[in-house]
Amino acid sequence: MLRIRRFEERCVELYSSGEIRGFVHLCIGEEAVSVGVNRALTPEDAVVTTYREHGHALARGIPAEAVFAEMLGRVTGCSHGRGGSMHLFDAARRFYGGHGIVAGGLPVAAGLALADRMRDEPRLACCFFGDGAFAEGEFHETANLAALWDLPLLMVCENNLYAMGTPLTREHAQIDLAARAASYGMVAWAVDGMDVLAVEHAARRAAQAVREGGGPYFLELRTYRFRAHSMYDPDLYRDKAEIEEWKQRDPITRLADRLRADGGLDDDGLQLVEKEIAEELDRAAEQARKGGLEPVEDLLRFVRTPTGEPS
Questions:
Q1: Of 203, 206, 182, whose CA–CA distance to 193 is shortest?
Q2: Cα gap 227→126, rounded to integer Å
C-alpha cells in the first residue's frame, strides 16, 4: 500500500511538471482494495479494471518502471506508450486493462470467465469497477449472464461514494449496492474497503467459492478517494470536512497502527520501508525517462494489417 501511495504522489509531481500528460486518476485512499483483493488472486487469474488502475497494476506485480514509462508515453511502457495512465495492460500477468469507459471492462471480464469455464480452467476473472457502473447497462447485463451461466467471475465494486462528481445518494434510489447485486442471484457482501485485512479475508473466501464452482460472487468494498476524480477536477462537490473524516480511516495508517500494537512494526521499521520505496521509485522514474518514444514510422502499427488494409 505504501508503494502505491508513494507512486501516485510521484505521479502528481510528474503531472504538475508536464512530464505526464492526458488524464490521470489517482486511487490515493483506496489502496486497501488493490492490495487486499490481489493477495487473494493467483497468477493464473485474470484481472480487468478501470481507468483508476495504477494501484491494481502495481499490486498485480507490474513493475513501477513499466507503469511510469507508460504514463510518460515511452515504448518501454507496459502498453508500449500507446495507452497512458488509463490503459495499462500486461498480458503476461493476465492484467487486461485499464478501460476508459465506465463499466466497459465488465463484459470483457465475463468473456474471459466464460472462456475459462468452457475450457475447464481452474481459475477466475476478477473485475474491478466503481459505483458509477451501476448506472450502466453493462453492469446489469454482465451480472445477469454471469449468474445465469454460473461464470467464475469475481465482481469487485469500489464504492467510493461518487461517480465523478455525482454523489451515490443523488444517482441511485437504493444505495445498498450489495443488495442490488444479490437480486441477480449471486452471493454479495459489503466490506469495509478501508481495512486491507477485511478486504483480503472477504476476497479470499469469495475467490475460493468461485473456483469451487460457486458461480459469480460480488464484493462491495466501501472506500473513499482522498483526491479529486482526476487531476483536472477542482473537487468542488465535496465537503472538506467529509474528506478529512475519511482520512481518519486511512488504510495505511490503520494497518501500521495494528502492526505496531501486535509488535510486528516499529517506527524504525516503517522508516526503512519508506526509504526502500523512495529509492525504488527514484530508480524506476529515471529508467522510465530513458525509454524511447515511438518513431513516427510506426504511427499505423497495430492500426492496419501488414498488407496495409484497415484492420
A1: 203
A2: 25
pLDDT tens by residue, 277-290? 999 999 999 999 99
The pLDDT tens digits of the residues spanning 226-246 come to 999 999 899 999 999 999 999
pLDDT in tens, 201-227: 999 999 999 999 999 999 999 999 999
Instruction: Tell me the DSSP string of the chain.
Output: -HHHHHHHHHHHHHHHTTSS-S-----TT-HHHHHHHHHT--TTSEEEEES--HHHHHHHT--HHHHHHHHTT-TTSTTTTSSGGG--EEGGGTEEEEE-STTTHHHHHHHHHHHHHHTT-S--EEEEEEGGGGGSHHHHHHHHHHHHTT--EEEEEEE-SEETTEEHHHH-S---HHHHHHTTTSEEEEEETT-HHHHHHHHHHHHHHHHTT---EEEEEE---SS-SSTT----SS-HHHHHHHHTT-HHHHHHHHHHHHTS--HHHHHHHHHHHHHHHHHHHHHHHHSPPPPGGGTTBTTB-TTSSB-
pLDDT confidence band for 311 (50 / 70 / 90)? low
pTM of the model: 0.94
Burial of 8 by CB count in 10 Å (0-12 exposed, 13-18 middle, 19+ buried)? Answer: buried
| Closest alpha carbon to 179 in 170, 188, 191 | 188
Taking CA atoms, 85 is separated from 25, 38, 226, 235, in Å, by 8, 20, 18, 20
